[in-house]
Amino acid sequence: MYVKFDKEANRVKGLCFHPQRTWLLASFHSGEIVIYDYEAGVMLQKYTDHTVPVRSVDFHPTQPLFCSGSDDNSVKVFNYEKQRCLYTFKEHLDFVRTVQFHHVHPYIVSSSDDMTIRIFNWETRTQVTTIPGHNHYVMSAFFHPTMPWILSASLDDTVRVWDVSALFNNNQPTGIFALTDTVIKYQQEEHISGVNWASWHPNRQLAVSCSDDQTVKIWKINESDMSVIATLRSHSNNVSCAIYHPLVDVVISASEDNTIRLWDSKRFLHLAKYRRSGDRFWILAAHPTLPLFAAGHDSGLTVFRLMRQRPTLDVSGNDIIYYKDNSIKKYNADSQSECTVGATKPRNSGNRASPLDPPPRTFSYNAAQNKLLVGFEDKFELHQLGGVGTSELKVETGCEPIWISRNQFAYLNPDNKAQLNVREASGTTVIKLTIPLTNKLFPASPSHLYLATPDSIILFDVTRRQQVSKRSVGNVRHAYISPDRRKVAFLTKNAVTICSIDLSKASTFHDGASVKSGAWREDFFIYSTKTHIKYFLANGDSGIIRSVGSRVYIASVGEKQVICINTANEVRRLDVDLTECRFKAALAEGNMGKVTSILRTAKLCSESIIDYLQKRGHPEVALLFVQDPEAKFRLALEAGDLKVAVEAAAQINDPVVWESLADEAMLHGLFSVAEVALQRSGNTERLAFFYLISGQADKMNNVKGDESLALQRAIWTNDRNTIGNLLKDAAPPLSTIALRDSLEPENIPEQFREACSTIGKPDLTNHALNNGSSEDWPLLFVSRPTFEINKEASDDEVGAGWDDDDDDDLLLGDEVGKSKARKGENDSDLGDEDGWGLDDIDDLDNELAEAAANSASVYIPPTNGTSPHDEWSEFSNVPGEIAAAGYFGQALDELHSQIALIDAAPLRNAFVTAYIASHASVPTFPSSPSLSVPLGMRFAERNSVPSVPSYIDLLRQKINVGYVEFSKANFAASQEAFLSALQCIPLAVCNTIEEENEVVSHIETCRQYLTGLMLENEMSSENDKQRHLELAAYFTHCQLQQKHVSLTLKKAMTIAFKEKNYQLVLEFGGRLSKIIKLPDKVQKMMAVSQTLSAKQNSPKINYDPRNPFDVCCKSLTPIYRGSQKAICPFCGACYTPANSGTKCTVCQMCQVGANDATGLKLVRPKRNRK
Question: What is the three-class DSSP state of 677?
């Protein structure tokens, strides 16, 4: 038995599993009824309609209903979708002990301390019949799974079977005949004390009962007889409950002696015991389709798993070797055939299999020798598989056996997992090696294996007996090597890590769900979770392929199908579409031909794919498939194709678009395009300035613009007459000075004559604008795509007039020789060289030797070396290292390309700090300045890297300040702290991947808190009550610390309650109850809301708690899953697509939606980049 879920609470009296969902219904002695998700370990719903102990609950098999029986003498029916009680039956006169839905008919059977069994119709909401007969408390009553019988147990020491076939045939008898529709079929008094429980076997004519006589009895019941076939004795106190498990052949009993015991239901042997100190067990419930059962005790409840659900398998080529029902089976993926090739040895009960025999933990198949290693917890079996369902078997002591070569395998010592044993399959000699403490072994390349330690994965060379490499990936559960044996995927509980085979490179994806299994297909990894099949690429891309209705474990991946095994050890083939995976893998490899082929044939060119191509830096590829003018214009600018951009801008004809085109054209030096774009935009001032910088004075004067800027233009063109006329009224002295050359001396006013004679007459003619032009100046080289898609043109359509053959004349160096070789030419074809006078070269040997001898005494100056600053900047793409070298411009360029930095003002202090921290000032002579010495150090394979301080402690300090101020509700100070922490990260330098992961996590923390603080600031200034509630609701979805989430939920509850939105009060309260114990005030608020929500409808707002969303950091509105969004490439803040190109309001530095950003580089490269 394994504990799957344990919940500390009050005494649990009733339990029931949902037949389809991962839900467990529990009732408490305190009167509460709670629905738990035992997979997620959380509470989903809570009902407080009862105020006294609730002794029994039951889910309906098909309807969204459950019923309860309580000490308030009532039976209640609830709808868990509407989350309220539908109606109440109050016919019982004393405590209700058990309730149960019939699986077909609309009936509920209940037992009570009023010594009766009653049947109710939950559809008509009436009592159908009352069954008297017992003369003491009726402790349980249950319908038979198939027959029209009811089995009851009572403290009158009897177990009875009632025939209710007349009730089912007559549907609903009424009146005085309602008492004659049930007949007692059997009555047994084998127990010598009160019987606490009796229940049916789910599919056999058997029943089990338990009593205060400390025994459990097995009954055989058929049409003609009821008799005891076994009595089970081991409990030392009253046995409160006993049930059969529908999937595993065991009887489970719970007792007040603090134990749960398991019995073989066929041989009636005691198999296992679970003891909980100080807690009596009261109730049991078995899952109808899974090997799970739950037990309620004095301090809560526990869910147990009877056996391992994960199938044991190994894959070799197209063959899948797996375990099922104590047999070893082989499934061929091509022929879809299955056969049994061996059997495992029983583990516990001698030579007979036990229901609780643990299945094998691992399979390792050697196809060359047709041998299989079957690993258990402390032993392993070596099978020589046969072709007709038989196998030769050897049993050895050890665990985690794997093949490491054709005839050699390794395993761990179960008593000392720091010892690795290696032996040959045909021999007995064991080589013992000392290794780090290891949990699991995985095969690697020949004579190598992976050691999974608690905190890392180690590549170990068995031949050399030494560690080769190590990667910090803790608690690895499974490993899968790619078909080309160049990569390996490691699975942990919630993450997939793809490494190179030597562990030198790694890429990790953290999944919110538990990762179950995986397999490689081509160059991408397919893995499964509880509800989905997903993919992950080595470059970090991931996605969902399809959903699955039940948990499956992937064995192999075909062209269009995934072959997997479910928890019942059955092979399933699921249809999948891997087009998206292949497209992204081809793009990552740079195989553009394959990319365009997929886009053209697979109809994959959606907006998400276009966005993905932009994000990955291939807008030129997306441009070939886009028809929308706005999208085409945007992509053309990113790709640098201004010809297409001009065509798209002409179709859009928007001034903003023309100005964007003008900006890009200026960057390219295409002045003619910029001139036309500015003319079409209507921005006369920018056009005039353009003419100014290009020296076109005539055109600038002809531009009609704002008259208030006429003086500025006159100054630009040195037009002194215009200057003088414009300043005549405003500044007469300046006007006179400007016009003095054109005025006669007598026309100069007397008061200005002295100034005009005193001030010299500068010659301004040399400063006049020359007549320039808008001729293009190609400043920027734009790389063009290496491929083209032309659906109509062919090679035959290219005419001879284009002189394509002349291009060969452009080849240089070795390329000339290669070109000649391709054309079949030879240097001898060039003719004789006699006429060039080259024969004299052979006579220069003596002169060359003499010159070489004389040069030995000539001083040759040494060549310049590489300065540390140049080495830091040239051999690294980490902005922090480049800034430390003092090359701020280069660092800004890197930040622009990596995170689309558009406002560097917040980084000013960080730049200065980075430079100062990596230099020392050395004093020299008194009259000389100090020397600035760069502080470098060796790092990995690099000779010198800047010695910059660690940012980790600084980030932690600032974020902790933000936490404290947030708790104190000093939101302005908290926002300042988080923003300061976020804005110092771009120049951080990390030495390890672990440091980088911590910094990245700090970015996410800062973004979440800054988004929440923006919502809080908006709430404080918002007067619209509905909008105020929406903002509060969005605030609760920010990923904050739990104590801060609880504060947001309390605030949102209060606002929702004031606005009479009781459904949201219950929603927020339910989430709050998962974090903290609800205060009395909050519980009272929820109780009132529960009552009022059934009487009135809550007002609608723009908020759906069940649909995941991100908050647009500009409009502060939700962006629900599936909607398009633009993302800040640095902090990850989300925006609606309309905000693309704007500055991020969270980090206040980067451009939103810059899909060409490559991502921030923080880890120093271990070797020179160039």
Answer: helix
Residue span(s) of the chain under CATH 2.130.10.10 come to: 2-167+180-305
SS3 for 168?
helix
Q: Where in the chain is the domain with CATH 1.25.40.470?
A: 608-738
Give per-residue pLDDT as tens, 260-281.
999 998 888 898 899 988 899 9
What 3-state class would DSSP assign to 888?
helix
Q: Which CATH architecture has domain 608-738?
A: Alpha Horseshoe (1.25)
pLDDT tens for each residue of 110-157? 999 999 999 999 999 999 999 998 999 999 999 999 899 999 999 999
The closest of 877, 694, 685 to 774, measured between CA atoms, is 694
Which string of DSSP letters, residue by residue, matches 1058-1116? Answer: HTT-HHHHHHHHHHHHTTSPPPHHHHHHHHHHHHHHTTSPPPP-S--TTS-EEE-TTT-
> 748: buried, middle or exposed (CB in 10 Å: 19+, 13-18, 0-12)?
middle
Fold of 2-167+180-305: Methylamine Dehydrogenase; Chain H (2.130.10)
Instruction: Please say if the pLDDT value at position 818 is more than 60.
Output: no
Q: Rounded CA gap, 512 and 532, in Å?
A: 12
- Max CA separation in the chain (angstroms): 144
Q: Rounded CA gap, 604 and 852, in Å?
A: 68
Amino acid making up residue 467: Q
Report the predicted TM-score, pTM, of the whole model to 2 decimal places: 0.56
Which DSSP symbol is given to 181?
Answer: S
Q: Is 1038 helix (H, G, I), strand (E, B) or coil?
A: coil
Nearest CA-CA partner of 251 in 274, 270, 237: 270
Report how far residue 5's alpha carbon sits from residue 22's, in angstroms, rounded to the nearest whole number. Answer: 12
What is residue 695's predicted lDDT score, i.e. its pLDDT? 74
> What is the distance between the terminal CA atoms of the chain, rounded to a whole angstrom?
58
